Amino acid sequence: MCGRFVVAGATGDLVSLFDVDLPAEGLPGPSWNIAPTDPVAIILDAVPKRPDAGAEPVRRMEAAKWGLVPAWSKDPKSGPSAINARIESVVEKPTFKTAVQKRRALVPASGYYEWRTADGIKTPYFISFGEGQVMAFAGLYEWWRNPAAADDAPDKWLLTTSILTQAATGELASIHDRMPVFLSPDVADDWLDPHEGASAELLGAVSIGGIELAEEAEFYAVSPAVGNVRTNGPELIEPV
Questions:
Q1: What is the pLDDT of residue 54?
Q2: Which of 174, 159, 181 is nearest to 86 (CA)?
Q3: pTM score
Q4: d(Cα 191, Cα 184) in Å, to the nearest integer?
Q5: In a 3-state reduction of DSSP, which class is residue 139?
Q6: Residue 37 · residue 6 · CB < 8 Å
Q7: Rounded distance, CA 63 to CA 41, Å?
């Protein structure tokens, strides 16, 4: 499971790193304790709706609420918050099966937190690819339309996202049995391609790439202060 993560880099750096064509306004800034329902930056390839804009996807960076709300939901607050989606069953689950075919995203991160339980004691660990390296989580996104809001109301549309997980491997399995699906550069374009369906081949390539990237992960114990969602700051990723 991935329930807390970190984005320490500046938005401009992420725009450059992931070749974003169109960054949205109001993108969230750096945070060392991103929790469910927080706004997060996601990257997606979208086909322009204007006929004169052509059919080539535009790479956008948007702010999305962490916790996917399917388009068919009557109320975005009803039911559990879908912050994670299992890659093994994502094409079958009603909450995710439409998004995985048409609306796939990349969620940038500097690292994430996971808790190891031993002798009844939970210890938080910070997991990353090393200082300055950026992780890319495989994600999904959905637009939810508020039927009660006016067409020009700012809350007419709600953008939400979920992070894919898979079985943890290697040393990461000693902390938790699940890990985020790390998106490798060689499959990132195919994952974001809105013209590409979620074939078994694509999901398999993404999963295998994530397992290979997991071998590069580093981790160490951090302060239990990260357990408080109101606590934030770079000191949270300092080793203890």
A1: 58
A2: 181
A3: 0.94
A4: 10
A5: strand
A6: no
A7: 5
Answer whether 52's CB lies under 8 Å from 79's CB: no
Q: Is 227 in a helix, a strand, or coil?
A: helix
CA-to-CA distance for 186 and 60, rounded, in angstroms?
A: 19
> In 113-224, which residue ranges form alpha helices assigned H by DSSP?
185-192, 200-214
Q: Which residues contact 172 (CB under 8 A, 6 or more apart)?
A: 114, 127, 179, 214, 217, 219
What span, in angstroms and rounded, lies between the C-alpha atoms of 201 and 55? Answer: 24
- Beta strands, E only, 47-146: 58-66, 84-86, 104-109, 111-118, 121-128, 135-145
Provide the sign of the torsion angle of the four alpha carbons 220, 223, 228, 233, taken in this order. negative
pLDDT at 148: 87
Name the E strands within the chain: 4-7, 22-23, 31-34, 39-46, 58-66, 84-86, 104-109, 111-118, 121-128, 135-145, 157-167, 178-180, 218-221
Q: Is 150 exposed, middle or buried (0-12, 13-18, 19+ CB in 10 A)?
A: exposed
Q: What is the pLDDT of residues 33-86, one digit of tens each?
A: 999 999 999 999 998 876 555 578 999 999 999 999 999 998 887 655 699 999
CB atoms within 10 A of CB 86: 16
Rg (CA), the chain: 18
Residue 22 CA to residue 178 CA, distance in Å, equals: 33
Q: First-to-last CA distance in the chain?
A: 23
